[in-house]
Fold this protein.
Amino acid sequence: MGAGVERVLGDPEVLRVRIPFSNLGAGQTNCYMLHDAGEWLVVDLGASGARGRRALAAAFAEAGVDFSACRVFLTHGHFDHAGLLAEAVSARVEAFLSEAAFDLRQPALRAAVHDRFLRRMLAAGASEDDARGYAVANAEAVAFEPGARPWRFVREGDVLSVGRYSFSVVGTAGHTPDHLALYEPRCGVLFGGDHVLMGAAPSVDAFPGSEDGLGLYLANLRKAADLPVRTTLPGHGEPIFGSLGPRAAEIARRKEERCEDVRAAVARLPECGLETLARTAVLRAAPETWRRLRPMARYYALLEAFAAVQHLCAQGRVRRLPDEGCATWRYRAE
């Protein structure tokens, strides 16, 4: 097919177009178009921007997507999966997503979210300039405006039917608090978003408060591994054929090794801060090397360290020390 459209599956018929984005580096997000019995479902859309918008519009035209009989499903609200919703899809089209995704991206909350993030980065040990740079890296351009379109909130166990196919919603929080997947048990197809990827171990967002986002992610990895999946269509990269068990086990192993690295750093550097953990345990970089990195790269290292230390605290293996007048978080191994 033209316009970059590929047929990646026949039962059900699924077409794919890859939409470019740039963040820490250049990449592509898979947008899937499922068609059966005159009905369409589009899964994820790609990042905002003129280049992606042109690619998506051309793909929709090439595939013949009928938006009068179409719905959109968002696995999560990250910019590279939901950014083109307002730009490329008619406001009449229903969008299915988790209520958490909608709540997290309310325009009215942006100032409060920005302020809370800045305070968290300062507590992690970042300078004010660095904290502002990290805030830019963390900022999501995606906003879900109330009343902008028909929003449909779904959760674990809900079913979306497309022609002859019935997809169950699977809760897969971890990469983000709002992450969902779609599973069709009859044909064994999973639209997995960023829950399981072949090219990378997905990052785990900073969950609010002391919630153990990594622990939740690992539990939902096991859930995905237990599904009798024949084909997984991920948010990035190529389809994954067969059981997710081996890849899920590999990702879990890497995450657990990272936790061990972080705990060893806490034991070696008593009462150290989160930025020190990110530098020494995640990137293993000298201070001068750390300072030369782009804010986005340092931000992702902080995110990895934060997820690991929250998990270790939840397990009782690391303790966050009382502030005692110190503005920066400090940790100690138990």
